[in-house]
Amino acid sequence: MSDFAELNLEGKSYKLPIIVGTEEEKAIDISSLRAETGYVTLDSGYKNTGATTSAITFLDGEKGILSYRGYPIEQLAEKSNFIEVAYLLIYGSLPTADELDQFNNRIKRHTLVNEDMRKILDGFPSAAHPMGILSALVSSLTAFYPESVNPNQTTDEVDRTIVRLLAKLSTIAAWSYRNSVGHPVIYPKNRLDYCSNFLNMMFAFPTEEYQINPVVVDALNKLLILHADHEQNCSTSTVRLVGSANASLYSSVSAGISALWGPLHGGANQAVIEMLEQIKADGGDSKKFIAKAKDKNDPFRLMGFGHRVYKNFDPRAKIIKKTADDVLGALGIKDPILGIAKELEEAALTDQYFIDRKLYPNVDFYSGIIYRAIGIPTNMFTVMFALGRLPGWIAQWKEMREQKEPIGRPRQIYVGATERNYVPINER
Ligand code: CMC
Fold it and tell me: How far apart are the first and last CA of the chain?
């Protein structure tokens, strides 16, 4: 194969370098195109634009492959735990037993948040969406750790910020929930593992020990692992873009949380449950809603279906569907919306509209059903996604910084009015 592509433009020929990734992904490097030709490329929604080279996550949407640092997602979901996967994503290799121990202990030392943050939390109305609280409180960490905004911090200092954020996000997430139900916050218990501690802060009564169910802890580990990274998606690209301006990790991740909140991205897991509830309340006729999703005059979309990059199946959805069956079985829960979800999936997968457009259930189609079974309320689903995605955001921010990437600044094709003279207000 040639190591350049040839572009013929206005009678002249230009050679553009070809870049090949370790999994044989091919790209044409157009970074010199504008300087050489005066042209930019146009790609709304960046559907076909590689914004960076990255060694963190590989996914092949056609074959349904997803791996972190080379390890298949199926193996990590089955054999690993969330903190081990976080280490893998952030530092690039699986930790030894000692390294994992140290990492866990460092995280445990930072789980408390400054008491003044409680005052900020108290200022939110109880009806506030926990995603808004999460984003605001993560951003406010810059006020408690002002040194984190220095773009010239040493590697050790950056690492402390990373560990702090990993440790504190679960406390902030659980507290935002406690605030929304008007319950007193529960402080972290550092003898517990990450997932058990989070569940305890969510559900314990101040005076009673929370009974930790290993089935629930296992399911939570799986869900967080499956959400931990997904290469250059909307929120991750946001984190990298904000970080490319030398903004702090806290500010960059706060922006990522806001991006994730959107119903076309992480907000879809909440939207799926609301949709399934709507179908149930309407009599449970999934065919009617399939017809609505296909009708171009109807804004209704089948939430939890379709994906920008997976065009065959989403490997995460496969694992989650099985986990949903296992968890509901183990907890003895019969949730009627699981039946509706399966019916809907079956009807969509055999419908020509969905087949033609390669629309399959994505990670969010069944995750909400599991969250619901373990007692997590609907408005916390996207917070759970953020908790899972945090190691990915951190790894991507760190990589962007280590690769000394330039500030992100896309171009545009201007299509507005050409130059015209100002008209005084009384003459318009
Ligand atoms: N229901 C009905 N039609 C759909 C759906 C859907 N869920 N998704 C896509 N389509 C149709 C769309 O109308 C279009 O049809 P046509 O070619 O006739 O105009 C075609 O499929 C292609 O869709 P698109 O919107 O151009 O695809 P996209 O890559 O821009 O959007 C998506 C991807 C995920 C935003 C979209 O599939 C969607 O809105 N899905 C529902 C929301 C959802 O579940 N989001 C979670 C994504 S996974 C979690 C994450 O990683 O964030």
Answer: 61
Instruction: Say which residue, 373 or 95, is predicted with more confidence.
Output: 95
Task: Among 305, 349, 393, say which to mutate for ligand 1: greatest number of ligand atoms within 8 Å of CB.
Answer: 305
Task: Specify whether the CB–CB gap between 279 and 272 falls below 8 A.
Answer: no
Ligand 1 atom nearest residue 307's Cα: 34
The residue written with tokens 């690209």 in the block is 237
Q: Is 231 in the pocket of ligand 1 (CB under 6 A)?
A: no
Q: Is 160 in the pocket of ligand 1 (CB under 6 A)?
A: no
Please work out whether the CB of residue 366 comes within 6 Å of at least one atom of ligand 1. no
Quote the pTM value.
0.92
Instruction: Please name the fold of domain 72-407.
Output: Citrate Synthase; domain 1 (1.10.580)
On the question of a common fold for 4-50 and 72-407, the answer reads no
For range 145-168, the mean pLDDT: 97
Question: Which token pair is 407?
Answer: 């500030």
Closest protein CA for atom 24 of ligand 1: 308
Domain boundaries, the chain: 4-50, 72-407
Output the pLDDT for position 152. Answer: 95
Convert the pLDDT of each residue in 286-321 to its tens digit.
899 999 999 999 999 999 999 988 888 899 999 998
CATH class of 4-50: mainly beta
